[in-house]
Amino acid sequence: MTDVHSKAVRSKNMAAIKGHNTKPELSVRKALHNAGFRYRLHVASLPGKPDLVFPRYKAVIFVQGCFWHQHQCAMFHWPKSRTDWWVKKISANRAHDEAVQDKLRELGWRVLLVWECALKGKHKVPLQQLTVDISHWLRYGTSFMELPVV
Ligand SMILES: [Zn+2]
Questions:
Q1: Rounded to the nearest whole angstrom, what is the distance from the C-alpha of residue 61 to the centroid of ligand 1?
Q2: Taking every pair of C-alpha atoms in the chain, what is the biggest distance, in angstroms?
Q3: Which of 17, 21, 52, 146 could be bridged to 39 by S-S, CB 3.0 to 4.6 A?
């Protein structure tokens, strides 16, 4: 198959797929920054290259696409074609996620997953509430949490 996309378009598509650097993610980052939190982005030296790393709080955040990481929510549906291929693909993603989270916890990092559906769509959490929830987790949270809380 010929790749008809330019590099710029392709990286924009990949960003959308992975949920990285999307508008809602940027809003959350900005709100946390305004709340006084300092973080590093996409730290390649840590397992899974977490989206946000808060060294002072020994905490990392992954912003996860509900489809690619099989979130149990309304945004996830199995594709109707090539189902076997997708089951393999998505299952591999999930196995990878779990391995990454285990490794991070072994290294003493706490892990927060912020799902795409908390950031956009019908069930999104208001930015202010999301910021409060994340701030609270950073300061007092346990070793693992997901937002939205179900
Ligand atoms: Zn979701």
A1: 15
A2: 50
A3: 52
Query: 23-41 burial by CB neighbour count: b if 16+ within 10 A, else e?
Result: ebbeebbebbeeeebebee
In the predicted structure, residue 5 carries a pLDDT above the cut 90: no
What is residue 9's predicted lDDT score, i.e. its pLDDT? Answer: 57
Domain borders along the chain are 7-147
pLDDT tens-digit readout, 66-97 = 999 999 999 999 999 999 999 999 999 999 99
Residue 111: strand pairing partners: 60, 144
Q: What is the pTM of this model?
A: 0.85
Architecture of the domain whose range is 7-147:
3-Layer(aba) Sandwich (3.40)
Q: Which residues surround ligand 1, an ion (CB under 5 A)?
A: 66, 71, 73, 75, 115, 117
Average pLDDT, the chain: 89
